[in-house]
Amino acid sequence: MIDLSPFVRPGSGVWWSQASAEPTPLVHALLDQADALGPVRAFSGLSWDDRLARHLPQSVTLSSYGALGELRLLSRAGRLDIVPCHYSALPRLFAEGALPSDVGFVQVSPPDADGTCSLGVGVDYISDALAHTPVLIAEVNRRMPTTTGTARIPLSRFAAVVETDRPLAQAPVRAADDVELAIARHVAELVEDGDTLQLGVGSLPTAVLDRLAGHQDLGFHAGMISDGVLRLVEKGVLTGARKEIDPGVIVTGAALGSTELYERLPELPVEFRPASYTHAPHVLSRLRTLVSVNSAIDVDLTGQVGAESRRGVHIGAVGGQVDFSRAAALTGARSIITVRARSGEHSTIVSRLHGPVTTGRSDVDHVVTEYGAAHLRGCDLTERTRRLAAIAAPEFREDLLNGAK
Fold first, then answer.
1. Looking at the structure, do residues 126 and 46 belong to the same domain, yes or no?
2. Same domain membership, residue 364 and residue 259
3. Quick one: which of 115, 118, 253, 359 is 20 to 30 A from 324 by CA?
4. 170 in a domain, yes or no?
């Protein structure tokens, strides 16, 4: 195990790569040594690390832009500090020192003949944070693929290195249920040939991608890609031929999928770019065919979207939803919000949001549930109420309309 004491001091701020690029051996070393190192401030994005979520030492204060993956357990336990921000703001927050950035943990590919390493499947906010972090420690994983689109890192930039040969973490897989399949069908009807898509990962986004197999010349520009993207490339659907920028190229910041996806990345037309590019307003405004597809926890009768908390507990994030929804609604093609009509015994189409407003109603063109799509662009508040109530679960519709009156 690496000794972190020469690099991490009491009060140090530490960040690390997220999801499939999470440098687990380094994170676990921090957990093991945390009490001896003194109080540590840490920042992490999406994590699938069960140990991090269940056994966070009291000496470590962890913050994140959202309660994603296993971090939901920490959120429910009151151990996660949420930084409410747009994903596009992360580069600036690191530049200003607002986020912990004394030491950074990264997982990289083996060095090439020139002695430089790739951030592989985890470029996202990490690439932007590097310039503002004096001490970098790397897990050099033989199985991390070399990717293109972002400058490589000289091996000499790392203060210490741990070499591994382990599979990259695979995204949790769950087959889409009937509700998600119905939502995916409605979303696919809103996508036109030649559109440039932004979707997240998970069972619903995967169902949407699979439903688009009959489309032509779709493009892709998003914060992350999944196996569904791989399948559309294989079928000749994702050509990017009509993209206004980066034609023929899939632009992303991270890959969250299976081992097959990671291994096949070098043969795909994909470039990994930092958040300062993938989510930047001046970049997204050039994609006139942009269609954003994002998920909600609940939506009110005017079209306001909540995607962060349920019953007072953070379970989501602002993330890139507003970055992409606003661009798609204002300068792109259309902004789509998806939500299951029910959460347990409760309606997710509500008179009043149960948490903060994540995405404003002016940035939402369509809301889709399993009962259909509510087209909101250009509608007044009365018409929005009628259309949104119409796609709520049937048993709640009358109460919603009566409440609105």
1. yes
2. yes
3. 118
4. no
